[in-house]
């Protein structure tokens, strides 16, 4: 046992405070596996947790950070031994269980997956919850049976974490990808990931009609609210939309029209408590199907001590793609 560096959120009379300080390993929460964290990442939810803009943190004190990769140091779980490389995403880590922005983590072994063959720990965190969620969206669309032959696929929030990986995965799978973004300057970046068309997010961000012109057969939406309503309204008959985010809001101001008049399917994606076998399948496919050069092109790296600045930037929409956090 000993001390290590960690970001710690404390509750205050006016909200919460955030500090980068020493944390005692004896104060880690219960779990049957202790991991030396080597890398983490910054997701939209991490930004909310660190800034307190939304009540993501539900236990204090809290070490934020919902994703990590690292090496097992101690284990009472039958599937893991000291020295094993592992990945964790979700399961309330960084919200109700002490999280990833620290040099140590103690968690339940059932929450972990082995680091997939073909990925380094840094690449796994370049993917993180955002990229993993994008793969779950693609898997849901495939399971529903929608194919590139039926028309284009739309990605909202395309220059963000989920969106960037979604564009790359859909393009590699043969889709004509329409990338929606509010940043005109990101057009070259999105074309480089595989987007064929760029759509100004303003076309989707304002209230529209219950049904609009049929424009895409599939969509991955990380925005929610009015944007998701307009995505549904523009989806072709028998198309499908995978919804995984709420950057614009949790509401959904739509009607039943897309569902009962066009047979559009709305597929909800929960990346937090995905069953083990499905998690393994998603991570295995990411290792095989996400081009490493493309992944590198959408990634920046920061040290653990600078996560607070990235948290502010991601909420302000100033972060492109993915951010690796070097913890060691």
Approximately what portion of the residues adopt beta-strand conformation? 25-35%
Q: Biggest β-sheet: count, sense, barrel?
A: 7 strands, mixed
- Which CATH architecture of the largest domain? Alpha-Beta Complex
Summed over residues and divided by their number, the pLDDT gives a mean of 96
| H/E element order | EEEHEEEEHEHEHEHEHEHEHHEHE
Helix content: 25-40%
Please report the total strand number as a whole number. Answer: 15
Distance between the termini: 17 Å
| Overall radius of gyration | 20 Å
Q: Overall 3D geometry?
A: globular
Q: What is the structural class?
A: alpha/beta
Summarize the structure in words.
The protein has 328 residues and is of the alpha/beta class. It has ten helices and 15 strands. It folds into two domains: 142 residues, Medium-chain alcohol dehydrogenases, catalytic domain (Quinone Oxidoreductase, Chain A, domain 1, Alpha-Beta Complex); 140 residues, Rossmann fold, CATH 3.40.50.720. 30% of the residues lie in helices and 28% in strands. Strands 3, 4, 5, 6, 7, 14 and 15 form a seven-stranded mixed beta sheet that branches. Strands 10-9-8-11-12-13 form a six-stranded parallel beta sheet, with helices on both faces. Helix 3 links the parallel strand 8 and strand 9. 49% of the residues are buried.
């Amino acid at each position: 046992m000993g001390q290590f560096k960690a970001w710690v959120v404390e509750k205050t009379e006016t909200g919460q405070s955030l500090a980068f300080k020493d944390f005692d390993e004896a104060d880690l929460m219960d779990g049957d596996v202790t991991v030396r964290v080597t890398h983490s990442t910054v997701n939209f939810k991490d930004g909310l947790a660190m800034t307190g803009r939304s009540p993501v943190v539900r236990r204090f004190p809290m070490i934020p950070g919902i994703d990590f990769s690292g090496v097992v140091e101690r284990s009472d779980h039958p599937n893991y031994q000291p020295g094993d490389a592992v990945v964790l995403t979700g399961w309330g880590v960084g919200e109700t269980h002490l999280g990833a922005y620290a040099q140590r983590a103690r968690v339940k072994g059932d929450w972990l997956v082995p680091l997939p063959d073909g990925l380094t720990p840094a690449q796994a965190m370049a993917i993180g919850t955002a990229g993993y969620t994008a793969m779950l969206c693609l898997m849901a669309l495939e399971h529903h049976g929608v194919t590139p032959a039926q028309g284009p696929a739309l990605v909202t929030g395309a220059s963000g974490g989920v969106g960037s990986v979604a564009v790359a995965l859909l393009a590699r799978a043969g889709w004509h990808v329409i990338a929606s973004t509010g940043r005109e300057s990101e057009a070259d970046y999105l074309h480089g990931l595989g987007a064929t068309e760029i759509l100004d997010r303003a076309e989707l961000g304002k209230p529209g009609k219950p049904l609009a012109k049929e424009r895409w057969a599939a969509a991955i939406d990380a925005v929610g609210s009015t944007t998701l309503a307009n995505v549904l309204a523009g989806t072709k008959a028998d198309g499908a939309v995978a919804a995984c985010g709420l950057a614009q809001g949790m509401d959904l101001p739509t009607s039943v029209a897309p569902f009962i008049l066009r047979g559009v399917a709305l597929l909800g994606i929960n990346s937090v408590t995905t069953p083990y076998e499905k998690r393994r399948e998603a991570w295995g496919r990411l290792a095989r199907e996400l081009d490493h050069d493309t992944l590198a092109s959408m990634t920046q790296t920061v040290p653990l001590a600078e996560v607070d600045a990235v948290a502010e930037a991601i909420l302000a929409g100033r972060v492109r793609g993915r951010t690796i956090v070097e913890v060691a």
